[in-house]
Amino acid sequence: MKILRPPFRALSDENGVTNTFFTVYVVELALRMSPMPISVQRKESGDAESVYQQVRQALEQGQPRLLEMTCEKVEGKRLSVLTSDVLAVQIYEKTAASGGSKRPGFSLDS
Closest Cα to residue 26, out of 7, 54, 2, 48? Predict the structure, then answer.
């Protein structure tokens, strides 16, 4: 018997085969004048929600300030961004099963 602890999750397919997937939570920022978003990953849902709320509160205050974030997935990855340049923030769950195929949000692709 295998004991799984978060962020691992076991899923069974229609044939009864059990697969284990690693879940990571992504906090993604859309920046002014930048075509590509920046993101940091968290291993726990609560930690990702905390980062999301931190960014959201900084946006609500309306005062430009420097916001620094670190990434749990990529060791040593650090981001510093001026809050006045952040246009949007989103949080989503990513598993090994979903890979990097399509991010949540709006898309012009059919």
Answer: 48
Boundaries of every domain in the chain? 24-95
- What gap in Å lies between CA 31 and CA 22, rounded to an integer? 28
Is the sign of the CA dihedral 23, 58, 104, 73 positive or negative? negative
Higher pLDDT among residues 96 and 8, named by residue: 96
* Of 34, 48, 38, the residue nearest 94 (C-alpha): 48
Confidence of residue 20 (pLDDT cuts 50, 70, 90): low
Query: pLDDT of 25-40, one tens digit each?
Result: 999 999 999 999 999 9
Buried b (16+ CB within 10 A) or exposed e, 22-48: ebbbbbbbbeeeeeebebbbbeeeeeb
